[in-house]
Amino acid sequence: DAGITQSPRHKVTETGTPVTLRCHQTENHRYMYWYRQDPGHGLRLIHYSYGVKDTDKGEVSDGYSVSRSKTEDFLLTLESATSSQTSVYFCAISPGGDNSPLHFGNGTRLTVT
Amino acid sequence: QKEVEQDPGPLSVPEGAIVSLNCTYSNSAFQYFMWYRQYSRKGPELLMYTYSSGNKEDGRFTAQVDKSSKYISLFIRDSQPSDSATYLCATSRMNYGGSQGNLIFGKGTKLSVKP
Fold first, then answer.
1. Contacts of the segment B66-70: beta carbons below 8 A, 24+ positions apart
2. Across-strand partners of A61?
């Protein structure tokens, strides 16, 4: 799991409720990423961070926000969950820095009812 | 046209067979290419990482990149039941400032190796 812990591993929530997913890394890597994985779409980048308080949007950022107040933690928030956000969410890091391959956590399975 | 195209399969082979997995991509600026293996209910695991054209071998796995045809391949020799998984190809989106994190993934090919 490349030193990545995602929590919770599973969550069921209702439409309209806020949800926060947490990614914790143990190795102080600068770059961290949030992806979602859906059948028929594959993995898509939501947001990424290149340092504490430095974040940027990815391909599918609408409806999501992120925060990184410490190097080791990267939070993904769904302000008001919708059924279209039912997905598996993966956090990733770049152990070798920029231009190195990503290593992924084991994911959070989120269901919005 | 999608930036990375990958046949979703499923692909079923007998144990010991040679497996060929393939992707095509559309942007000639892509230079970094990766293959990930993903077991059910797990995160993707990096298998192979190559830069530009050519072959790279690691044990039973060989990654091949042909930039002239924008074609990426992964070959698995002497396939084992433990190779049963979904295989994802990925390449870098260099116009995002070169960050490897901005990868574009294929949708994955599900492989089953039967004993």
1. B67/B28, B69/B24, B70/B24, B70/B25, B70/B26, B70/B28
2. none
Q: What is the pLDDT along chain B (115 residues), one digit of tens a residue?
A: 678 999 888 999 999 999 999 999 998 888 889 999 999 999 999 999 888 788 999 999 999 999 899 999 999 999 999 999 999 999 876 544 445 457 889 999 999 999 9
What is the amino acid identity at position B80? Q
User: Chain A, 58-77: which have a CB under 8 Å from a chain B CB?
Assistant: 58
In angstroms, rounded to a whole number, what is the distance separating the alpha carbons of residues A112 and A53? 28
Q: How far apart are CA A85 and CA A100, in angstroms?
A: 29
Dig out the tokens for A14 from the structure. Answer: 């209702």
Chain A environment of B99 (Cβ under 8 Å): 31, 48, 50, 94, 98-99
User: With contact defined as beta carbons under 8 Å apart, do A5 and A54 qualify?
Assistant: no
Q: Does B99 touch chain A (CB under 8 A)?
A: yes
**Residue B36 corresponds to which amino acid?**
Y
* B chain contacts of residue A105, beta-carbon cutoff 8 Å: 43
CB B33 within 8 A of CB B72: yes
Q: What is the DSSP string of B67-82?
A: TTTTEEEEEESS--GG
Bridge partner list, A9: none
